[in-house]
Amino acid sequence: MADYAVMIVDDEKIIRDGLQEAINWEKFGFYIAATASDGVEAIEKFRAVRPDIIIMDIKMPEMDGLAALEQIKEENSDTEVVLLSGYEEFSYAKSGIRLGAFDYILKIKVFQELDAVLERLRKHLDEKRKQSSSFMQFQQLKNNYLFLRFIRGKTPTGITFSNQDTLYSVVSIWMDEEKLEAGERIAQSIEDLPHVMGAENQYIHIILFQEGNRFETHLQQISKGIEAIERCLKHEFHGTRYAMGIGAVKPTVADLPDSFREAMKTVDYLRCLKDGQATMIYTEWVDAAPSTFDLNDTHEGWINWVYSGDAERLLAWISDLFKQAYMAKDMTLKDMKTICIQVLLQFVSAMRSAKKSCNDDSNFIEELKDYDSLHELESYMIDRCKRLCELIHDNIQMQKNISITLVKEYIDQFYTSPLSLSGVAEHFHFSSGYLSLQFKEYTGKNFTQYIINKRLNRSCELLTGTTLQIYKIAAEVGYTDEKHFTKLFIRHFDMNPREYRMKHQAKHKNS
After folding, report:
1. Could you give the angle at which helices 432-443 and 447-465 cross, rounded to 10 degrees?
2. Order of strands across the sheet with 103-106?
3. Cβ neighbours of residue 79 under 8 Å, at least 6 residues apart?
4. pTM check: above 0.70
5. Tens-digit pLDDT profile for residues 311-348
6. CA torsion 182→184→186→192, rounded to 10°?
């Protein structure tokens, strides 16, 4: 089983490719997560991928391996680095060991010696993981004891506050699967904020403290903590669904059980929202929500309309809901406000998923309190949902353009390599059909024709600017079969490559 991620860093493509192909990484429980061609790119990929192991050349342009090693170790000392060096870099390799490298290998012997180094690395990482797991279990038991004392309304022995006036609140997080390391990662993300943490199964609970009785300062602290936690969840546990609830601010330890119950009530409410995405709300938002009401019973597609920004269908559905409310004797204004909260919460979630802000997420809760009739409430909802749909729709279009721009840039860089529509689609997590349609809409050419044009245009530059033989030019632009290359060239320019070269050389002489 491939447990550990590896990144290969070398400015020579032949070395990067050779290491990927020649080593049986799976045998050691490793997999290649990324490659980089210099130290600067290595730092960027390291931050994005967080590999367990880095195999890195010492001598590289932009930033050498030692400088990259030093920065990587500063940011994450647990990442293991194996340096590759030449004979003339032997003294640098020893410096790398002092900087924290696991080992070094002479490049000339890399394919003979790397297996043994990887075997040692595997044993070393397994042992670290075992020790880390035991420590985390011990730390979790300790944290749970402190947390349980607090939420029973008692201050644990040994904990004192310098200021008698202290405010408290509980943050509860649910994750869709139990992750032992999640508590430690979250604790690290908010280490500059006073807190106590507890964990059970898929829940993580955090008590945030604020010495002094300034309510506004405590709310700022909560917001700061939530932002740090969300960054941690999105970065460290990408793809994991979560829900987060915040209990009301309390002035004494004795009130903490109430804040805990409120936080859990909010989390469980969020979990019960069908197809709910990662989101966070405060306990006050749930107070009016009837537990038996399920909006999905009215139409299962409404959440999709929110996430796609489909204003026409969503607004028609909302109008229909209000028509039913006008006719129904048992449907109160409070019930409709609850429906509005659930719809607008999905917009909050959709905007967060798109990494967009819809101003103050909680603003609509206060706004809804001001409406005393169904007509006023309907006008508000139609107007607000229309504007939010426009924002989401515009963002979707922008993201499509950004994504296809990245695909085009990728093809422009690697067009001489064997590229297939399915391979590029998989690389960018698209379906082949979607990529084909979007790429043609963006460039005006289909995927295959775009690559052929890039290759043939480059071949024209080589025909007129160099004396390379035709078969070498064909290979240079990505064709191993000279006959196939010539056939494509004739189809495109109505002449073969030699005729094209002669014609343009004659033009150059005449000019």
Report:
1. 50
2. 30-36, 4-9, 53-57, 80-85, 103-106
3. 46, 50, 51, 52, 53, 54, 72, 73
4. no
5. 888 899 889 888 888 887 667 787 788 778 778 877 77
6. 180
